[in-house]
Amino acid sequence: MTSSHGSRPKHLSSSPFKPKVEPEIEVFEVGDRVTHDLYGLGRVTKIDSHAVTVDFAGQTVRIQPPYSKLQHL
What we know:
There is one protein chain. The chain has a domain at 32-67. The chain is 0% helix and 37% strand. It contains no helices and five strands. It has a five-stranded antiparallel β-sheet, with no helix packed on it. The radius of gyration is 17 Å and the shape is elongated. The mean pLDDT is 86.
């Protein structure tokens, strides 16, 4: 459920449920060596505000956050 502004409703301190944890989005830089669950080893070639572009042995892939399958080496 979201409020009229598009964000989640405020978590009440009296609630017996734990608040949802926001996923931490990794920060990448051009030249970083990375690994991807599907594509394998690669190197970050470009960064923009909505994605990173990675070269995986000649195959260039644009990956959007939260980068769940992409990790730093």
